[in-house]
Write the structure tokens for this entry.
Amino acid sequence: MRWRPFRCVAVAVLSLSAAPAAAQVYQIEAGSSSLFHADGGTLEVRGGDATLLLSAGRLPGGFTLGAQVRKRIGDVTLGLGDGVIDFDLPSDVLTAGHAIALRGARVDVARGPWRIVAFGGATSVTSGAPFFRGGDWSSPLGLLFADRTITPRLKFSTRNTISARPTSIQALEWRPRPAIALAGAGGLGNGSPYASASSVFDNGWVAAKAVVSTPAHGFRQLDPAAPMASEIERENVAVTVRPGTRWQVNGARQHLVQDEVGRSAEEVTVNQVGGIVNAAGTRFAGALFQSTGADRQSLGSSLSVGRALSTRFDLSGDYFRYAPRHDAPSSSGGVSLRTTVNPRLSLVQVVTRSSGQTSLNFGGEILTNPASISISYQTVYAPLRIGNPFVQIVGVDLRIHAPGDLELRAGTYATPDGRLTYTISGTRVLSRAHGAAGTGRVRLSRFLIQGQVVENDAKPLAGAVVQIGDDVVITDDAGRFAVRTPRAERRAVAVLTEEFLAPGRFEVVSAPDTAASAPDDGAASITIVLRRR
């Protein structure tokens, strides 16, 4: 069963009639992605506390339509149509981004220490892409998620679904100190017993994460259609020691499982140890990887040496070796020269040697107010790839702000099994205010949530994207952001690293889960710390 056109039109009419007549904002977004196997677009209409989305596009199952209506009434948000609900547990410290694509009716309540999500409808076979929301009806599903902050250090979560294979998982997260976090989850997952426990320790110079998970065979938190999905099971640990700015050592052990629709599940155990040293103006980095699975057992190693020749020129060399247990080893290497023309323009020339062939590639980075363009050549370790796990990819990160409030984005991504995929999209925002020009009045809410995003060396980061409740903001040149609320309330805080306008890739070191709004003269500033990957 699919959404029929007249249903979408009816939803649109009802939504627009509910939106205030004072102002409306229209956002048009479209794109194409091999990562999500989708082509399509979305029209979003926002007016006051109401939002309407209409989507149309092509998915692997054919052409489909999607729609979503959201209406906020006080601390309750009502939703109808296509959507995604996060299914992260507090013990998911080594994996994140679990989500369920759904189609039906949803209610979100944020009241005091409680955050509650209730849903009734069905799962959706596919969810499209970041620029397109759609799918097909699948299995009936009822859902109740709740989170409660018991004390500032203790949080309770419950995840419950009613379906052919029900789920009921309860979890606790305890932070006895800022540097320590402990969590545990257990119950019934997909009709089978499930349990997991995690611990996190980070005092600045030692960072350690450990997870023990005992899912039953075939258990998945996440919809198997997710292209970047990989789960973990059994014991998993990652440790980084960074006693100084000149060197660090890291090690990890993970049991990875990737399970996509139409493909058999792949399991592999990866052991890794590596380090980085900066001495006498020279950078040294090395790592060893061991992969063991049903159809593979291999040892990989990498070595990198780099040095700044001057303020404009930086030279580096890389070497990679792959040694399978029952086959001949292979190796590859390359030399790259980065030339900094000015603070906004740098060029990269890369010479690589692999499988007896030599290649020459060019890239670089351009940073301007309307655009940021980065093209790089990277060798990544893909543990789920059959054969040589070292894969050379072209890294592209493109953001362009064109006249007329038009934004274009493009990027490439490497999946855990080494496939190079892309996503291309564009967004345009239009606004319309009803009534005579010059007669409108702007009234600012007197409650404020404000903060700053910095890198781990305390450098402010411009172009970072932060979501505060339903509002998305971008940091200014000082790394600062602010959101106004109609009343004193607490909102969820999320860092959208994949949406950054700032060049490069980042990961979150520390960020609050929620932030409380307060009058201007009493609003405290929250701090979000990131590091470059």
